[in-house]
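Students often ask what a holo structure prediction actually looks like on paper. The answer is less mysterious than it sounds. You provide the chain, you provide the ligand, and the output is a string of discrete structure tokens encoding the 3D arrangement of the protein together with S-adenosylmethionine.
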Amino acid sequence: MMDLETAKNTLGEEFSFFCDLFMEQLEALALPTHARILDVGTGMGRAAITLALSGYQVLTGEPAQDHSEYAKQPWFTDAQKVGADHSITYEPFDATALPFGDGAFDAVFMMGALHHVDDPAAAVRECLRVIAPAGVLCILEPTPKLVSMARESHPDHPDPTDPTRLVQGMDVQKKPGQMFDTYLIRPSSDS
Ligand SMILES: C[S@@+](CC[C@H](N)C(=O)[O-])C[C@H]1O[C@@H](n2cnc3c(N)ncnc32)[C@H](O)[C@@H]1O
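The corresponding structure tokens follow.
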């Protein structure tokens, strides 16, 4: 597998941009290398590839029936180019009805995916269900600035979703950013 900087040069500017933003949050979480990780909403595979390049095994997926412009992207070719394909397992799934047991993961990531889900409340509920009590749900949602950039190529791009309104009574740590706001939600903080 390539080192991160060589992989960024290989996959280009757009991957590099998202990779850097994601890495900042990933490093802050300091997950152990054996952490069981789920990436919800494969898309362009930027989160999954960054996780793999960081030494994690990752399970990623999106709905089999999603034929929107955001799904079924050629991420596997990118993963192969940088030798990250062996650390990524793809399985189609719907975030609103995850086919995994309670507490199956130590960390669940949704990078730029929650606002694409039809029923975001059900998706967050399901993500929290599959996280172990000491685990974390890490949601990155685009800021209005990033959404307006995205609308230059995708005029129908949806507005961001604020997960805090979906998990009332839970402690949500919000980390505002220039391009993404990050929300950390921990099942153990459920009161
Ligand atoms: C903009 S892409 C996400 C970008 C991606 N995380 C990355 O790192 O490149 C949005 C993703 O959300 C997925 N999505 C939409 N509805 C979903 C659902 N109900 N369950 C899981 N994923 C969903 C889409 O299929 C797509 O993969």
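The pocket of S-adenosylmethionine is lined by residues 40-47, 62-63, 66, 70-71, 94-96, 111-113, 116-117 (CB under 6 Å).
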